[in-house]
Design goal:
The complex is a heterodimer of chains A (181) and B (97).
Chain A lengths: L4 H47 L4 H24 L5 H22 L4 H23 L1 H20 L4 H21 L2
Chain B lengths: L4 H4 L1 H10 L8 E2 H8 L3 H13 L3 E8 L2 E8 L1 H21 L1
Helix pairs in contact in B: 2-3
The chains are: A mainly alpha (181), B alpha+beta (97).
Chain lengths: 181, 97
C-alpha cells in the first residue's frame, strides 16, 4: 500500500479531530457524578449557612471534606487506580492553600464576601478548564461566576440561598447537561 | 516502516481514534462510536468485527435493563498498532518536507 503525504496529512487531521471529540465526551462523562456531588454539597452547606451563618466556616470545611473524599472515590471508580493519582489531590491542596493565603493577605473578614469569592474562583476555574477540555465547562463556569459576582456585590437578602442556587444549582444542572452527551 | 492495512481504512482509523483516549476501564457504546466515526449502522458492526478479528478491539455485549448494549475498547495490541500507524503517517509527512 502506498500512502501519499496528502493522504497522511488528511488521516492525521481526522485522527486529531475524532480523538479530540472523544476526549471531550469522556471528560464530560467523567465529570458528571463529581459535579452533581459538589452541587449537592454546595446547596446543603449554603442552606445550612442561611440558617446558622455564625457557623459558616465550619460548615464549608465539612462540606469541602465530603466533596474532596467523594470526588476521589468517584475518580478511582471511573478510571481505576492509576499512577499519579496523588497529583490530583496535590493540585486540590495547592489550590485550597493558595486561596486561604490570598484570603488572609486580602484580610477578608466578611464570610459572605469570602463565600462569593470562593464561588467566583470555582466559576473561573471551570471556565479555564473549559478552554482546554470542552466548551460546556466554560458555559457552566460563566454562569457560576456571573451569579456569584452579582451576589457578592449586591449582598441580596438570603445571600446564601442565592449562592446555593448559583453554585449548587448550576453544578447539578451542568452535570445533568454533560451526562446527555 | 509499513502502514497497517487494517487501521488505515478511514472508518476504522476514526474508530481507533475514538477509542484511543479511553483508559483501561472505559468503554464506548455503539451509539457514541457511530456518532464519532461517522459510520452507519450497517458498516459499523462490520468494521468493529474486522478490528476485533485483528485483536485490536474487544467488543462486549450486555443488557441495561431489557435493552441490549454493545461496547468496545482498545486492546494493548490495538493501542500499540494505532501508535505505530500514527508514527508511520508522521514519517511520511516529515519525509515530504
Amino acid at each position: 500500500m502506498t500512502v501519499s503525504p496528502q493522504d497522511a496529512a488528511r488521516a492525521l487531521k481526522d485522527v486529531e479531530q475524532v480523538a479530540g471529540r472523544s476526549s471531550a465526551l469522556r471528560n464530560y462523562r467523567a465529570a458528571t457524578p463529581a459535579l452533581i456531588l459538589w452541587g449537592l454539597v454546595w446547596i446543603v452547606v449554603s442552606v445550612c449557612c442561611d440558617r446558622w451563618p455564625q457557623h459558616a466556616g465550619l460548615l464549608w470545611g465539612a462540606g469541602d471534606l465530603v466533596g474532596i473524599v467523594g470526588t476521589t472515590v468517584i475518580g478511582v471508580r471511573f478510571t481505576g487506580s492509576r499512577p499519579g493519582r496523588w497529583r490530583d489531590l496535590a493540585t486540590a491542596g495547592v489550590a485550597i492553600a493558595t486561596a486561604m493565603a490570598a484570603v488572609n493577605l486580602l484580610q477578608i473578614r466578611s464570610v459572605e464576601t469570602l463565600t462569593a469569592l470562593v464561588a467566583l474562583g470555582v466559576g473561573g476555574a471551570y471556565m479555564a478548564w473549559g478552554v482546554w477540555r470542552g466548551a460546556r465547562f466554560f458555559v457552566l463556569g460563566l454562569i457560576i461566576a456571573v451569579v456569584s459576582l452579582a451576589a457578592g456585590l449586591l449582598h441580596p437578602p438570603h445571600f446564601y440561598l442565592w449562592i446555593a442556587g448559583a453554585g449548587g444549582g448550576a453544578l447539578i444542572l451542568g452535570g445533568l447537561w454533560l451526562r446527555r452527551t | 516502516m509499513e502502514p497497517d492495512d487494517i487501521i488505515h481504512q478511514s472508518t476504522r482509523l476514526r474508530l481507533m481514534a475514538a477509542l484511543y483516549p479511553l483508559t483501561r476501564n472505559e468503554r464506548l457504546d455503539f451509539k457514541r462510536l457511530k456518532a464519532l466515526s461517522g459510520a452507519t449502522d450497517g458498516n459499523l458492526g462490520g468494521h468493529l468485527a474486522t478490528l476485533e478479528k485483528a485483536g485490536y478491539v474487544v467488543i462486549e455485549k450486555d443488557f441495561v435493563g431489557k435493552k441490549p448494549r454493545t461496547r468496545a475498547s482498545l486492546t494493548k495490541e490495538g493501542r500499540r498498532a494505532f501508535e505505530r500507524h500514527l508514527d508511520f503517517l508522521r514519517d511520511i509527512l516529515e519525509q515530504s518536507q
